[in-house]
Amino acid sequence: MNQNELKKSLSKLPLGLGDVRYFDSIGSTNSEALAWSAGGAKDLSLVIADEQTAGRGRLDRKWFTPRGTALAFSLILRPSAKEKPHLTRIVGLAALAVADSLRTRGLVAQIKWPNDVLLDGRKVAGILVESVWSGVEVDYVVIGVGLNVLKGAVPSAELLQFPATSLEESLGPGVERGKVLRDILAGILALRPHIGTDSFIAAWEKMLAFRDEQVQVEGGSETPMTGKLLGLESDGSLKLSSEDGKSVTVRFGDVRLRRQA
Ligand code: BT5
């Protein structure tokens, strides 16, 4: 994908984006977007790169984006006053848009709470949401999305804590990155006005992996929690029912979810 192809794909979006910065190679699109936000980027400005040399996951874990194989982009939002109470739903906004873009291609995509999109139980995309605050007010939110499009994007198994896959593995050759990008962005734009609604949470919940299954949640130094995955709270936190039938809420943070062995 080059800058011209990118512009062509994006020109077909139903609503206008802000400015677009394209890089053949960059450290991290999220870092660039955070710097751009500090410099006054407009709402819906987009940073996209063909390759990332220092792509980041949560807690500075690495995200691999080899040249010519993947989508790696960061969309900058300046949340409106109406959106500000729903910041914790933004990761869901991105995950839903990615999952929808895969479902329209006939694939069964699921969201592994909080920030992964799975195909056939393997990670095809990761989302990293970062915010810039002025005191207690959020100024900007950067939504970073990494999606493995071609097989070459998938890191070798020893680099991974969770199995990974690509779109090409499910769809065969010929997947066009520009079209997938356009679909994801169109999805985010279409869902954004509904972010505060109950139906948004219901749509997010419907896509959750491991629903009604026993799962284990590991969070930092705390003892792992186990329970049945029930769904989402209204802020997007995870709702479990523990073995003694109590309802437990797992808040956002560095948590890892897996099916209980
Ligand atoms: C994530 O973190 O999954 C968030 C990834 C966000 C990446 C995007 S790319 C555009 C933007 N710019 C950035 O710098 N970042 C964002 P986390 O849940 O912490 O998962 C990270 C883990 O995923 C790593 O420790 C690896 O085990 C695994 N991983 C790394 N690269 C992968 C890949 N290409 N496919 C599947 N898994 C990967």
Overall description:
- The chain is α+β, with helices and mostly antiparallel strands.
- The protein contains six helices and twelve strands.
- The strands form two sheets. A seven-stranded mixed beta sheet has the order 1-2-3-7-6-5-4, sandwiched between helices.
- Helix 3 packs across helix 5.
- The model has no long low-confidence stretch (mean pLDDT 92).
- Biotinyl-5-AMP binds at residues 28-30, 52, 55-58, 61-65, 72-74, 115-116, 123, 126-128, 144-146, 148, 153-155, 160-161, 164.
Question: What tags apply to this protein structure?
Answer:
single chain; 261 residues; seven-stranded mixed beta sheet; five-stranded antiparallel beta sheet; 6 helices; 33% strand; binds biotinyl-5-AMP
What separation lies between the terminal Cα atoms?
41 Å
Count of helical segments?
A: 6
Find the structural class using helix and strand composition: alpha+beta
- Report the average pLDDT across residues: 92
Widest beta sheet: strand line-up: 1-2-3-7-6-5-4
Radius of gyration: 18 Å
Largest sheet: 7 strands, mixed
Strand portion: 25-35%
Order of H and E elements: HEHEEHEEEEHHHEEEEE
Residue windows where pLDDT falls under 50 for at least 5 positions: none
Q: Summarize the amount of helix as a percent range.
A: 10-25%
Looking at the structure, what is the overall shape? globular
Which cofactors or ions or other ligands sit in this model? biotinyl-5-AMP
Number of strands: 12
